[in-house]
């Protein structure tokens, strides 16, 4: 589940209720035993730094008594613990054909390109100067 609008953050609530708590309550009321955690997709091979709330549940009436373990990362930002380093956009597109006849893309609009040119490999919008966040990301920056 995308951590959109700070789903995992108690400071953001629906009325007096924390959004994630509301979702968990509904799932539990439907008969599920749950565990949840906030994961960074980059730690699992995605070529972007993106947090995701992962909710794992099993039916309360199932025969399984084992607790669902935490997910084990497959990548590390610095390549520690014998894991490969986080993937970059360049890694993700490295196998895309380079001949023009095989490429299908839309050009990046100049107003977006200026933000991309400020970033180094592996960086994302939060690495832009804070005064540009709102302009670069619009409503997604809040």
Task: Please provide a brief summary of the model.
This protein is of the alpha+beta class. It has a domain at 4-60 and 72-105. The protein has helices at residues 19-29, 89-93, 110-116, 133-137, and strands spanning 13-14, 17-18, 32-40, 51-59.
Commentary on this structure:
By secondary structure, the protein is of the alpha+beta class. It has a domain at 4-60 and 72-105. Helices cover 20% and strands 15% of the residues. The protein contains 4 helices and 4 strands, in the order ββαββααα. It has helices at 19-29, 89-93, 110-116, 133-137, and strands spanning 13-14, 17-18, 32-40, 51-59. The strands form 2 sheets. Strands 1-2 form a two-stranded antiparallel sheet. A hairpin with a 2-residue loop joins strand 1 (13-14) and strand 2. The longest helix is centred in the N-terminal third of the chain and has 11 residues, at 19-29. The mean pLDDT is 82.
End-to-end CA span: 18 Å
Number of helices: 4
Q: What number is the mean pLDDT?
A: 82
Radius of gyration: 20 Å
Strand residue percentage? 15-25%
Strand order within the widest sheet? 1-2
Given the helix and strand composition, which structural class is it?
alpha+beta
What string gives the helices and strands in order? EEHEEHHH
Helix content: 10-25%
The 3D shape can be described as extended
Catalytic activity: a 2'-deoxycytidine in DNA + S-adenosyl-L-methionine = a 5-methyl-2'-deoxycytidine in DNA + S-adenosyl-L-homocysteine + H(+)
Organism: Candidatus Anaerobiospirillum pullicola
Protein name: DNA cytosine methyltransferase
GO molecular function, one term: DNA (cytosine-5-)-methyltransferase activity
């Amino acid at each position: 589940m995308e951590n959109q609008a700070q789903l995992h953050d108690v400071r953001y609530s629906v009325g007096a209720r924390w959004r994630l708590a509301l979702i968990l309550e509904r799932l539990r009321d439907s008969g599920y035993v749950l565990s949840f955690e906030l994961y960074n997709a980059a730690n699992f091979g995605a070529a972007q730094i993106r947090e995701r709330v992962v909710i794992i549940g099993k039916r309360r009436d199932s025969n399984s008594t084992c607790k669902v373990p935490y997910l084990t990362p497959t990548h590390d930002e610095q390549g520690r613990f014998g894991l490969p380093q986080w993937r970059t956009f360049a890694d993700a597109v490295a196998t895309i054909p380079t001949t023009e006849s095989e490429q299908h893309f839309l050009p990046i609009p100049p107003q977006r390109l200026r933000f991309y040119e400020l970033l180094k490999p592996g960086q994302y919008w939060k690495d832009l100067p804070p005064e540009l966040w709102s302009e670069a990301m619009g409503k997604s920056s809040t």
